From TrEMBL, chain A:
Protein name, per record: NADH-quinone oxidoreductase subunit F
EC number, as in UniProt: 7.1.1.-
Cofactor(s) listed: [4Fe-4S] cluster; FMN
PROSITE patterns registered for this protein in UniProt: COMPLEX1_51K_1 (PS00644), COMPLEX1_51K_2 (PS00645)
Function: NDH-1 shuttles electrons from NADH, via FMN and iron-sulfur (Fe-S) centers, to quinones in the respiratory chain.
KW 4Fe-4S (keyword) present: yes
Domain NADH-ubiquinone oxidoreductase 51kDa subunit iron-sulphur binding as annotated: residue spans: 330-375
Reaction catalysis annotation: a quinone + NADH + 5 H(+)(in) = a quinol + NAD(+) + 4 H(+)(out)
Domain of life: Bacteria
Automatic annotation (TrEMBL), chain B:
NCBIfam families linked to this entry: PRK07539.1-1
Pfam families xref list: 2Fe-2S_thioredx
Record field: compositional bias (Polar residues): 1-19
Organism: Kibdelosporangium persicum
Entries under InterPro entries matching the protein: NuoE_dom, NuoE_N, Thioredoxin-like_sf
Name under which the protein is recorded: NADH-quinone oxidoreductase subunit NuoE
Lineage start: Bacteria, Bacillati, Actinomycetota, Actinomycetes, Pseudonocardiales
Amino acid sequence: MSTVDPVTPVLTKRWLSPRSWSIQTYEQLEGYTALRKALTATPEQIVQVVKDSGLRGRGGAGFPSGLKWSFMPPNEDKPHYLVINADEGEPGTCKDIPLMMADPHSLIEGCVIASYAMRSHHCFIYVRGEVLHCIRRLNAAVKEAKAAGYLGENILGSGYDLEITVHAGAGAYICGEETALLDSLEGRRGQPRLKPPFPAAAGLYAAPTTVNNVETIASVPYIINGGSDWFRRMGTEKSPGPKIYSISGHVERPGQYEAPLGTTLRQLLEMAGGMKDGIPLKFWTPGGSSTPMFTAEHLDVPLDFEGAAEAGSMLGTTAVQVFNETVSVPWAVMKWTQFYKHESCGKCTPCREGTYWLVQILERMVDGNGTEEDIDTLLDVCDNVLGRSFCALGDGAVSPIQSGIKYFRDEFLALCQKNREKNRKPAMAGAN
Amino acid sequence: MTTSGPGQTYGGSSVTGGETYQAGHDDSTTAMDASVLSRAETTPLITEIREDLSVFDGIVDKARAIIARYPQSRSALLPMLHLVQSVQGYVSQAGIQFCARELELAPAEVSAVATFYTMYKRKPCGEHLVSVCTNTLCAALGGDEIYQTLREHLGEPGKPLGHEETAGTPGEPGSITIEHAECLAACDLGPVLQVNYEFYDNQTPEKAVELVDALRRGEKPAPTRGAPLTDFKDASLQLAGFFDRESDVEGPSQAAETLAGAQLAQDRGWTAPAMPANVAFPDLEKK
């Protein structure tokens, strides 16, 4: 097999075109050809192609998409729903919003194909509310697609009907968790549900539902046109395909770089022009703040689902946040913990109370009033949140703390040293 | 109008109708007797306040159009709360009662939702809402400094503006509400801020001060990415799904950062592998 280029624009290939968001541009550049092709196949054949392609969920968990789709019941006793998770909010993550702004029709086309494959006739795109321009573009795209016959009744004469509703959220990170998203879409507080039942059995309105990330669904038209073998030419055996890596922070040219899965930070830094002003790298996240941080030791870790996990983190959303030597790790960890505390939905005790206390300990530490025992207390509280919370928000909340202490314990100790020098009795966190 | 008298249930409740044990009792007398507070203090606590909802007469049709988008009416609640904000610039008690009436929910059910989400404001907002990302990455790049500078610049001497506080009279031209926001999904363009949820990328304290000063003078500087600026109420109407100006969609969206990878590939001649022509679907046996 011939080698593959370092940057492989598939999802991003139309972004440089004028008015890339319009249906005219989309149609000129092979848009909606995959839909025509898909409608000649059976739903089962489409699920099989997606299974064969090895496509894995791009929202962070990496669950095999075709397998997820196959959990939908074959009968239609109840309506089936496809819900697109466009609630991009994981700190550092900024791939789905630019995708939907630049090329909304690729998501719409993916939605029609995926809905057809899962026998759904109503698809919802749940977009976080703070991205008005993106919501505007999606609404316009739905309108254009409908006028062109790609949506609505009897799509392209196939007899298949589909409605797409664009739904704006209202500012809650937790709604990126799929069952919280469904509760939110039902007009409730966004709080996660107990699983099982999984959404495929009882999701939106207790009907069979599949929740997929934007990038996952936008990949589907290319898989239909190119086939599973083509898709597998990029990426690795278990993590095939291209992936949008979002590089942010202290690099010369931050931005969106679509590269085969398994690309390393060293390669990404080369694309992004290296560290900003030559100041050395200190720590980075492979896929958002909920993925344990890495250091300069991890420059050559292949950033695919297996590689990141073997090195002690997770691939997450491939939101590569790069921090140089000027940034204090305890400060960064404190800021992230403040975020998790603010976004904890309050449903379960370990996360609600845990994040509340973790923040206070970290804040007083950063203020220079911590003690060495605080480090053990932090890790102890983390142990009681990790794996004991209702959903993954709690697990994510402890990632920066545990990994920060693992790699940079000295920095935490140095802050405690400051306190000892002041020769003060430590105050109890939260006692003032 | 949804009432909350005894013996009645609300939409969404699993309790079926029929009289409850309370029926026939005079609730107010019982509550008065049981209360440790004086009569005058107890009265407002047990009296249902019915707000005048006529301010929303103009959006009844829009509310019903939202409800029609969904298989079940309650799904309309989030967009309807955005709609209510487009009228008053916040979610008032009247706004809550309006949503409850239209969706046949209890006001308490609507309140529970309205208080959960950050974007629903409980106090009247300024003409513009300025949201500064202070999550870790933006903060490290200067977001904390931008937020601090704006708080001081918009506040009184020695009394910086707090989170969700307003400079000027809410709703009046030139008034600005400021808030610190969590990650706004524009990290490659950090530090970022938003005005009425349109993006202003790669900010500095100086640029941010210039921006809010222009807003106070009644100017509407164009966002880096987004449609021409209007105001918070108009943005709320769009979030409810009503887009009146077709040209808004043309607003810029692609910064150099957004296109960095695609541009690099074009410059170097890098592409994804070519797709084979006419790939057949897998041949599945009919079940």
